Amino acid sequence: MTAPSHAAAPRAAEDLPFPAPAASGSAWPAAAGRQQALSALEQRYPGLWRAGQLGRAGGTAVCPTGYDALSAELPGGGWPAGGLTELLTTQGGAGEMRLLLPALRTLAGAGRRIALVAPPYLPNAMALAAAGLPARQCYWVRAPAEAARAAQQADMLWAAEQVLRSQAFGGVLVWLPAARPEALRRLQVLAQAGDAVAWALRPAAALRESSPAVLRLLLAPLPGNMLSITFHKRRGPVRDTPLLLRLDGMAAATRAAAWPVPAGAPAAATAGAPAGPEPLAQSSQLSSDAVLDRGAPAAPAPGRPAAQLA
């Protein structure tokens, strides 16, 4: 007895996004026909991209980087919204915050809120405001002391997941000294479900591990206010040489005050306070650390649900 065939029925020629083979029996159309077929596929499926060219945004928005040279190397011409970008640094303070400041200013200018999840240093409210980020639009999820970071890694990941799940933030930065690929996968899925621009900041040693992030960049500081950016993963061709980028001008005093004190320092610790989002309150004077008071969450943007972080 002949086994039933489960092969799909052939599609009609008019349903195919490419021209039918020539009558001579050739399996492939001529060069012009192939180009036409590829163009038709790209129009029908925006997520498709060729290995020799940068991928397109695929219908999703991007956030301008503020650096033309960098935007020209990124799919869609900016930081992907609804996707996870992984920034790996050879050392802390490599220039990652100055790299992201133009994008964060754009998001804040559009009325979106910014979440800083477990940064290694205390944010300074006045320094961030001087850089164009209003303190009341920035929320800080405090990190545990350095000695307890490894033990509370799951808590930091949970906090980042809740921030992304709330869809109440336009930009989310999360510092992850160590994270398993499945944890990053959850962040990627949650970012994809919304329209937040999400960055995971990790040590360069994490390059040995796989990652579901749509974009992976290695950052290394250089003399003269320069930053070396190596593209380890992007939707596009391989770039063999790093991109050398001059960072956005930022006053030296502001840079020094932006991240002055390691997180978990006694001056800012609150006994028994759970890790949660805290709006950055303005200090009465520029000091080594900002006054960080727990307050009521700001009202969400119109049409957006309030954050659910408890």
Automatic annotation (TrEMBL):
Signal peptide residues on this chain, from the entry's feature table: none
Keyword match Zinc: no
Organism domain of life: Bacteria
Protein name: Protein ImuA
InterPro entries: ImuA_translesion, P-loop_NTPase
Stored SUPFAM superfamilies: P-loop containing nucleoside triphosphate hydrolases
Keywords: Plasmid
Region listing for Disordered, in residue ranges: 1-20, 266-310
UniProt feature, compositional bias: Low complexity: 1-11, 266-281
Coiled-coil segments: none
